[in-house]
Amino acid sequence: MATRTIGIILNGATGRICSTQHLQNALVPIRDEGGLIVGDDRVVPRPVLVGRGADRLAEIAAAHGIADWTTDLDAVLADPAFSVMFDAGVTGHRGAVLGRAIAAGKHIYSEKPVAASVAEGLALLRAAEARGLKHGAVEDKLYLPGLQELARLARGGFFGRIIGFRLEFGWWVFDGVDEPCQRPSWNYQRAGGGGLILDMYPHWRYVLEGVVGRIGRVVSAASTATPVRVDERGQRYAVDVEDTSVTLIELESGACGTVLSSWATRVRRDDLFTFQVDGSKASAVAGLHRCWTQTNAQIPGTSHVNVATDIGADYRAAWDEVVRPGPHRNPYRIGWESFLRHLVAGSPIEADLAAGVRDIALAEACYRSMAEDKWVALDDVVQPSVRA
Ligand SMILES: NC(=O)c1ccc[n+]([C@@H]2O[C@H](COP(=O)([O-])OP(=O)(O)OC[C@H]3O[C@@H](n4cnc5c(N)ncnc54)[C@H](O)[C@@H]3O)[C@@H](O)[C@H]2O)c1
């Protein structure tokens, strides 16, 4: 068996998601296990860490036994030893960074959103394809155990006809005054690529379409619950993006559902993310890791509300938990393995850049629905050639 080393530029390597999920939980274990078996090859990732802080880069590199790190992105883009560029830097720099990598002839794999707009994403896609470069986008959430279960139920026809859904996500993110803010400040500034819709709706696109079917049209409302925050340096700044949003979604099938997302809500539901799917035969509710079902035969006999007394019913009792034995694989590692197989053996990849562009299209359709005060069809903001 031959060993094939793939040089991978990790841009944004000091960031939260790159240093933990992509490096520590995906690429390092693949390397430490001797590589990913693809056909007759052992594919071993060789990362070079790229970021702004030399000390932090050196620290992360040392922790994982990585020889290569730099603060000079141009230098590694010019280095033929590294054929892949992975970007997990701040969202606001994404398009420019990927554009430079494509111009340098690198295959690209990208965190979401893959660009700031559908137009920018399409330009990147065309440029990558014109140069014959491979491309992939991170779409990790469907690999979570709860969502895997929901998708499996949908594929197996458990729900009957899907008639509705409700996705709820979020928690309280402190403003940084009394308690430190749990998220980077660029998340709350337009110039940094912030905004809850641009940040989270790319996930909701593939999660929704992967479970309940293709999205037809959307209408959104959004607001800023926390207008002033304190950044990493202790400076107050004005939040100029939404941190709360409500979206109605009509599927191509005609079924309707809601998506509620907020960085200003206190959690009193099964998980930080919950997704309920209702069908003519049954329903299911998934959290990130768990999933519960209820068939028509299990529905408690509700006929009317009792205005005089609380009847003390436990509406959660008549649901069964669907148990899948673990251990479950890390969702980011699944994404990397799929991308590496695509890269070295041309295996089909579902989450390519075109899928990433459709992910942005959902965010863009929601923003447009607010700007134009109307329902917006998803296909009106994305060209037919990139419909996933
Ligand atoms: N797939 C997911 O679920 C998921 C989760 C979190 C983040 N992300 C995405 O990953 C990317 C990074 O997010 P994060 O939470 O790790 O961010 P982060 O702020 O922790 O890290 C981003 C990186 O960019 C650098 N950086 C920060 N501000 C910068 C600036 N002004 N100029 C240049 N560099 C700067 C940081 O040093 C770091 O290396 C974002 O695009 C985000 O959407 C995806």
Give short descriptive properties of this protein:
single chain, binds nicotinamide-adenine-dinucleotide, alpha/beta, Dihydrodipicolinate Reductase, domain 2, globular, 388 residues, Rossmann fold
Strand and helix layout:
Elements: E1 2-11, H1 16-32, E2 36-38, E3 41-50, H2 54-63, E4 68-70, H3 73-77, E5 84-87, H4 94-103, E6 107-110, H5 118-130, E7 135-137, H6 145-155, E8 162-170, H7 196-211, E9 215-223, E10 228-230, E11 236-238, E12 244-251, E13 256-262, E14 273-279, E15 282-286, E16 291-295, E17 320-321, H8 331-345, H9 353-372, E18 376-377
Helix pairs in contact: 1-8, 4-5, 5-9, 7-9
Walkthrough of the structure:
The chain has 388 residues and is an alpha/beta fold. The protein has 2 domains: 155 residues, NAD(P)-binding Rossmann-like Domain (Rossmann fold), CATH 3.40.50; 182 residues, Dihydrodipicolinate Reductase, domain 2 (2-Layer Sandwich). It contains 9 helices and 18 strands. A 9-stranded mixed sheet has the order 17-16-15-14-8-13-12-9-18. Strand 5, helix 4 and strand 6 form a beta-alpha-beta unit. Helix 1 packs across helix 8, helix 4 packs parallel to helix 5 and helix 5 runs antiparallel to helix 9. It starts with a strand and ends in an 11-residue tail after the last strand. It binds nicotinamide-adenine-dinucleotide (NAD). The site of nicotinamide-adenine-dinucleotide (NAD) has 19 residues, from helix 1.
* Content of β-strand: 25-35%
Shape: globular
Count of discrete structural domains: 2
CATH topology of the largest domain: Dihydrodipicolinate Reductase, domain 2
Number of H/I helices: 9
Q: Quick one: how many beta strands?
A: 18
Bound molecules: nicotinamide-adenine-dinucleotide
Topology pattern, helix = H, strand = E = EHEEHEHEHEHEHEHEEEEEEEEEHHE
Query: Termini separation (Å)?
Result: 35 Å
The helicity comes to 25-40%
In terms of structural class, how would the helical and strand content be classed?
alpha/beta
